[in-house]
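Hey team,

Filing this mostly as a record. A colleague (T.K.) asked me to run one chain through the structure pipeline before their review meeting, and I want the input and output archived in the tracker in case anyone asks later how it was produced. No errors, nothing strange. Just documentation.

Input sequence:
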Amino acid sequence: MTQHTAEGQPAVGSLRVGLFTDTYAPQVNGVSISLQLISEGLKQRGHQVTIFAPKFPGYTDHQPSVVRLPSLKYLNDPPIYVAVLGTPRTTWSLTRKHFDVLHAHSPLSVGLLAYLTASTKNLPLIYTYHTSITDYTHYIKFIGGSAVVRYGARWFSTATTNLGDQVVVPSPKFRRLLLDQKVSKPIHTIPNGIDLSTFKRTMPPGGFRARLGIKPGVPMLLSVGRIDPEKRLDFLIDAFVLIARDFPDAHLVFAGDGSARKDLEEKAASTPAKDRIHFLGMVKRADLPEIL
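Output structure:
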């Protein structure tokens, strides 16, 4: 255990924590935001945090604690970069760092780097299972979505999750999923944190609704998040069509963007409730209080 003083020297009780992720800023998704909150929370408690993530061309980090690894572009929409392991820069970035514990947030290239580092340096490894991998096989080029790929993804999910000494899941659903997949390591359910200070801002009443033509006090259903195929948000439109029959002044609002937005907009346009389904696009976290 590391010790650091207020002057930057080691103080009692602090840890040197390495966070490893395949997705981080400027990408906007649950894992990226969760990492930012975890990092901020650990730092507020006096711990030293270093985040390892793939390099995102054109983006500059404003935190010196973020180490960008050489990467290659895998997908255009959404843009996904995978880290290139074994390069001199990657090796140098790790060998010059000293850690007490490592925390992997992905089973892919950077997550495997966390496992290799933990094994080499004999360090404890925590693994957070953020995502059901089988729900993302459609992103695998050429063969994504086939039964063989899904079976392979399930096997890969179990194998990589078992690399951690302790496993964290954000919900009971994922705990049941991992137990069904025969994950043998201890599993702890710890929900993702929320920065409540974001939602304590006082916003002018009615501004958001007025822009969309939604009268004050009428029912409004709101979805905030990525609009990608694995989210299966089309069911919200199906459900809203039924709701709209009994609530003719109700509205459905999507706040977010993603590769499935166009398909969702086309589906919405084909329904009788099309005039009451709205798409805001990407909304900054600082602006969320206005729409909530």
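Quick notes for T.K.: Residues 2-189 form a domain with the Rossmann fold fold (CATH 3.40.50.2000). Residues 46 and 247 are 51 Å apart (CA to CA).
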